[in-house]
Recover the amino acids of this structure.
C-alpha cells in the first residue's frame, strides 16, 4: 500500500468531521441544535450562576452581597497567600509583590503592584476571587474575598485597619493609579481620534508578501490542483 492511499481514509474522516463541525456551527447559529441532534439540554439557572462570576472592574457591576474585615482578611491572607506574596505583600522570592512600587511605572524598573498598577478597586475583588490562591482558584467565599481584599487595601495604605469592606465601600475607593491608563494608542505614528469601527478600509487590500505561501504554511489553492 502506498503512503498516499493509506492516508486517504484519514483525510476522508477529517473532511467528514470538518463538515459535521460546520453543520453543527451553522445549527447553533440558527438555534436549531436540539431538533437536529437530539442531545444536550438548556443550562439551568444554577449552572449559569456558577459561570457568571465576573465583576466589572471600573464600576463594580456584579459585586456580590457580603462583607469582610481587614482583621479577618489578615488571618486568611497569612494562611492562604503569604507563602507566595509575603506576610505584608512584599513578595516571597520571585513570587509577585503586592505592595509598593508607586511611581515606578515610567521608570527603568516598573513594579506593578496593587497600589502602583490597579486602576479600580472592584477589579482586585474580581481577580482574587477568580484566580487566587494560585493552586486553588475560585475556592474563596464572597465574604472571605471581601476580607482578603480589605487586607490587601490595608497593607497598601488604602483602607484603615479597623475597616469593613462591602460592595459600596469597595466602589468608593479611589486607586492611586486611576488616571495612569491612557485611552487609545500613544505611539507617535498611530493616528489620534476616534477609532474607526465600520467600513474603515478606503482601498482594497493589497498583498505585499507571499512568504507564507512560499514556506508552504498557508493553504494554496493553486498548488492543490
Ligand atoms: C502558589 C503561589 C501563590 C499563592 C499561594 C497566591 N498567589 Fe497570588 N499570585 C501568584 C502568581 C504567580 C501571580 C501572578 C499571576 C499572573 O501574572 O498571571 C499572582 C498574582 C496575584 C495578584 C496580582 C498581582 C498584581 O499584579 O498586582 C494578586 C492581587 C494576588 N495574586 C493575590 C493573591 C491572594 C489574595 C492570595 C491568597 C488568597 C494569593 N494571591 C495566593 C501566586 C500565588
Amino acid at each position: 500500500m502506498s503512503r498516499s492511499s493509506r492516508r486517504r481514509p484519514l483525510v476522508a474522516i477529517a473532511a467528514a468531521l470538518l463538515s459535521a463541525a460546520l453543520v453543527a456551527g451553522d445549527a447553533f447559529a440558527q438555534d436549531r441544535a436540539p431538533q437536529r441532534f437530539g442531545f444536550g439540554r438548556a443550562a439551568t439557572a444554577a449552572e449559569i450562576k456558577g459561570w457568571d462570576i465576573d465583576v466589572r472592574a471600573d464600576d463594580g457591576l456584579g459585586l456580590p452581597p457580603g462583607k469582610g474585615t481587614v482583621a479577618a482578611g489578615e488571618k486568611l491572607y497569612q494562611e492562604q497567600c503569604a507563602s507566595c506574596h509575603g506576610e505584608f505583600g512584599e513578595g516571597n522570592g520571585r513570587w509577585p509583590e503586592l505592595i509598593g512600587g508607586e511611581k515606578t511605572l515610567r521608570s527603568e524598573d516598573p513594579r506593578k503592584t496593587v497600589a502602583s498598577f490597579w486602576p479600580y478597586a472592584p477589579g482586585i475583588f474580581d481577580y482574587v476571587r477568580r484566580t487566587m490562591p494560585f493552586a486553588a482558584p475560585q475556592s474563596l467565599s464572597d465574604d472571605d474575598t471581601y476580607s482578603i481584599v480589605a487586607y490587601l487595601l490595608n497593607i497598601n495604605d488604602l483602607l484603615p485597619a479597623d475597616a469593613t469592606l462591602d460592595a459600596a465601600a469597595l466602589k468608593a475607593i479611589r486607586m492611586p493609579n486611576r488616571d495612569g491608563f491612557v485611552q487609545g494608542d500613544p505611539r507617535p505614528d498611530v493616528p489620534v481620534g476616534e477609532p474607526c469601527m465600520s467600513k474603515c478600509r478606503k482601498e482594497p487590500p493589497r498583498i505585499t508578501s507571499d512568504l507564507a505561501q512560499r514556506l508552504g504554511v498557508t493553504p494554496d489553492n493553486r498548488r492543490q490542483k
Summary: The pocket of heme C is lined by residues 80-81, 83-85, 95-96, 98, 112-114, 117, 124, 127-128, 132-135, 148 (CB under 6 Å). The chain has a mean pLDDT of 86.
